[in-house]
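Question:
Write out your own:
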Amino acid sequence: MQPLLLGVDVGTTATKAVLINLAGKLVAQGRAEYPTIHLQAGWVEQDANQWWLSFCKATAEAILQVPDSTITGVAISSQAPTLLAVDNAGRPVRNALIWMDRRAQAQADQLKKKFPNISQLTGNLSDPYYVAAKIMWLKQNEPDNYTKSKFFLQIPGYLNYKLTGKFSLDSAHASLLQLRNADNKNWATEVLDFIGIDESKFPSIGLASDLLGEVIQENEAKIPVGTPVYFGTVDGCSAAVETGVIDPGLVAEMTGTSTVLIMPTDGNNFNDAFVAIDHAIANRQLRLGAMVAAGASVSWLMTNILKDQYSTQNLTQMATEVAPGCEGIIFLPYMMGERSPIWNTNARGVFFGLTLTTTPQMMFRAVLEGTAFALAHNVEIGKKSGIKIDEIRSIGGGSKSELWNQIKADVLGLPIAILKDSSGAAVGDAYLAGVGAGVFSDIKDVINSNVSIENRFLPNKVNHDYYQERYVRFRNIYESLKSEFDASAASANFGVNK
């Protein structure tokens, strides 16, 4: 029986499961999608039961490919953070509010007013992205559901409960609650008291590679009873590990529905590669910068404007013939508001510079350039903070576009490296299970020996110099519209405030 490690990542649109052998090589994988519920602008939910169904489908697909094997351990990562309220029996009280949900802006504003130093206190700016504001919204708007809630979980914690019967919270997700101190060692009691919530609403916290328990019963995921289950982590942390981004100079870009940058800042503490996971965000050895609408902007354009005329492949090919700058068009990619670096729930997508000669391919390229400019904004702040950035390793669905990769390289003035046979965060999770099981003598060596660069997109200096000027325009357009975004938000929906 071949011993294998199982890693599972629950993304924003799909669950992916992989099996690797003890040399770190990919053996099998499975995938299953699930729906997202957009109730209105900024209100985004998912059904936790769909996570479990997709988990079972993706995992069973992978496991059934290698019948003569045994699973040494499993670890799960996910999109983050999430507000999932469950009752005593672990049943969801309501649909989960995922990271993309922005309905708790008023509550985030209350936190900011009460704690002007909240970023120093908790390590996070006051924003509806985090769980604290979402809990306040639930308590104020759905008190009955709040009362029914035994625990507030993250996605790995929910799936781990389904497997082991034990409630859990991993340390990386805990640091995104905005209810922990900045070092992620203790609860921020003053914030808990202000919200009126007790720490008993959260299960015990463990490091990513800590053993939680074992699979306790047969399941549709086909994971054998007795299989060790580890706490797990945030998807960005596992993605960084899969790309070999565990030392300063290398940065991971995970691009799908959103784009996340993972930027190591202190190489002296990475002797054990999973220090980067266990204390990733809290001690800022690993910084996450994120923009909301990279892949979503492209999907929106194709689905809502260009769907009847063009395939993505054909439009991309035509867009390669459009000169940089798209004849003056600039796109602000804030389709769902924005997290880092502007932290503005009211920001929206904008096409600037349309004319009667504008073509669909110009608009398409402008979307790719706009998301690259937003990426550059995060990189600029990272560099000003002293983070060393020599190369960006891109993974996820967006990394498959050669045009997009080249645009990013030209805008950033940095190489964009694409991994060969990258399978994303789920591979990092499988490594994590191996660390927990103690089957790797040198995890860093295993990771680096399995990272293979398939292609590097190098910046074109002429294009980069031109894009520097367009980047200034991109930044200025947002600043010019910022007050209007805020003023317009109150009357965006007819009748709502009447």
Observations:
- The first strand starts at residue 2 and ends at 10.
- Residues 267-288 have pLDDT under 50 and may be disordered.
- The two ends are 67 Å apart (CA to CA).
- Residues 42 and 347 are 11 Å apart (CA to CA).
